[in-house]
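From the pipeline queue, job 12 of 40. The input is one protein chain; the requested action is below.

Action: predict structure.
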Amino acid sequence: MTEATQTTTLQQVRQPAPSTEVVNMFSAAGFALAQRIAAAYQTANAVPAAFRATTIKREKDANGDYYDVEVPNPAALGNCIVAIETAQAVGMSITAVMQNANVIEGRLSWSGKFVIAAINASRRFSPLRFRIKNRGRITANYKEKGRWNRDQRRYDMIEKSVEIDDIECVAWAYVMEGGRRTDEIIEGTPVSIKMAVEEGWYSKPGSKWQTELKHLMLQYRAGSFFGNIHAPDIVMGMGRSTEEIEDVVEAVPNNGDSIEVSMDELRRAQAGRAASRPAPADVTDVEPRPAASDPAAPAAPAHDATDSTSAPAPGVAADQQQSQLADAHEASGLDPAKVEHQIQNAKSIDVLDLASDSIDGIDDLGERARLHQLYQSRRLAMTANQQRTAAAPRRRMAAPE
């Protein structure tokens, strides 16, 4: 017993158990882990300047020439820890947070591209669309910082004006319910070049609002306003609760795509299919007999003469079952069998893609996941067959005579 215990202990020493430490700002071990991760990130060149241990500063020499010099950035470690905590809160990678967040006046602000991506991935709305309209030539007024006023101890603000094309952009989307698009349209706050001038975005040095990228800047800012008003929980990573995450499983098809389905809905669908499945009927014999294909199956109970006389005719029972199934399919969306028939009998990739659009109209999430997998496998097979067919003439032409 002692020798066996000693051998097990030595094996554990050779292969120690993996560490279970996680980032936690309220525990000593978790905070120390966050500091080690932050120290590694601040030495990288692939992160923005706010998260680097050193930053570039321009200095002037005795001759009046400017040169760049690296100076320490004391805020880098703290900024990295803030990014780590934010990544943990929103469920993103630390690198993605650093690349898509900007430190503006002591706050992490998400880039417009990230906000648009988060809204499109949430499936609460349809992909964001933008309506751009030129409202004509106008004169916009703005204030610019002037000289320092010693008496008032502040900068003098100089009023200026500029002639611009007042282009307006509005972000909008359809509301999605149950995976289907509704007719309800949600619009964000309009963003215009006039707003950019009045808010000071237009007059900043190197501003993209004055270049041909102004349309892109309008869309980014309109998407940010849409997310801040209609989907702040999505942008801040609070779109799903812990209970919802625990009740979701992944059905991973062969091609690697992931389809999320709810366990409760799968259980209800499975119970509904089992309850509505008709019992096998024997229409050739007068008396039913057990099937010989499955010897392990339990024998069917014998029916009395009174039961056989009271049972409906096979044709009437089949008609009743078909009518019940038809009513059930009409009440529960599209028929999975019809959609599967369209996918199986598609003769081209275009027809197959059109048939796959009907999958989302099926209410049974289990059938929907199965048909998505069938569609992907059929598409891969048809694509491979099309490539082989296109390559065959080239091989024949290259063969020597």
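Job complete. Residues 38 and 78 are 8 Å apart (CA to CA).
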